[in-house]
Specification:
The chain is mostly beta strands. The chain has helices at residues 140-143, 167-175, 180-191, and strands at 10-13, 34-38, 56-62, 74-75, 86-87, 100-113, 116-122, 131-137, 162-165, 207-211, 214-222, 225-233. The protein has a six-stranded antiparallel β-barrel with strand order 1-2-7-6-3-8. A hairpin with a 2-residue loop joins strand 11 (214-222) and strand 12 (225-233). It is globular, with a radius of gyration of 19 Å.
Length: 234
């Protein structure tokens, strides 16, 4: 059987600097905004002519971080609480024979110029630096099948948490010209509770995650409420 190899056509600039905290599907966090930087020789404006007519695009990407070995025939998807194992091909886990993923993101605009070509997108669920293998337009009549169903994830997840901010965290955001975009990104990301399901009984722990150029420290304040304790420039 023939073997094939692929090289990335670009990489993602994302507000998520590490795996922890990344939304579990694309489109859940509207303010997860970033760019897809296209690499030479693919950074040619004519290669993207017409793509501006699409509101959304498919990103085919490589799971480049966090793989600690070969593919796994069964995995523990977060949607099932992280305890039940099912077949890898019934999930979107990165622990696949070929670690390829796909995400639908909103295409905000296309930038071309002396610095090359980049796609400005929102609704990202990808880590900073993720290699992009291909880009395709999202075609609603073919890609959105209203009769389709998935027994594991039949509906979008709810936001189980409310998010409040300490005076110290508020002050940092105000010092950075208000940073309403960062506040919204933090709020939407934490509202979906990024903690591993098996750790959600550990209510006293302070968690940290890197978003854009900041480390966000937070903990469960009361049942259903997250307190952002601090936002630290890094």
């Amino acid at each position: 059987m023939d073997s094939y190899s692929f090289e990335p056509i670009g990489y993602v600039e994302s507000p998520y600097k590490e795996k922890f905290g990344i939304p579990r599907q694309a489109g859940l966090v509207e303010y997860a905004r970033g760019r897809v930087h296209i690499l030479p020789p693919y950074a040619r404006p004519e290669a993207f002519s017409g793509l501006e007519s699409s509101t959304h695009i498919w990103l085919l990407f490589l799971f480049h971080a966090g793989r600690d070995g070969d593919w796994r025939p069964t995995v523990r998807p977060p949607r099932l609480g992280g305890n039940k194992r099912i077949g890898v091909f019934a999930t979107r886990s990165g622990f696949r024979p070929n670690p390829i993923g796909m995400s639908v993101v909103r295409l905000e605009s296309i930038s071309t110029g002396a610095e090359g070509v980049s796609l400005n997108v929102s609704g990202l669920d990808l880590m900073n630096g993720t290699p992009i293998l291909d880009i395709k337009p999202y075609i609603p009549y073919a890609d959105a099948l209203i009769e389709a169903n998935n027994g594991i994830a039949p509906v979008a997840p709810e936001k189980p948490l409310s998010v409040i901010y300490s005076d110290r965290a508020d002050a940092v955001l105000l010092e950075n010209d208000g940073r309403d975009d960062l506040r919204r990104l933090i709020t939407e990301t934490l509202a979906f509770d990024p903690r591993p399901a098996y750790k959600r009984s550990d209510d006293n722990k302070t968690y940290g995650m890197r978003l854009t150029g900041f480390e966000v420290r937070w903990r469960l304040e009361t049942e259903g409420v997250v307190l952002v304790e601090d936002v630290i420039a890094v």
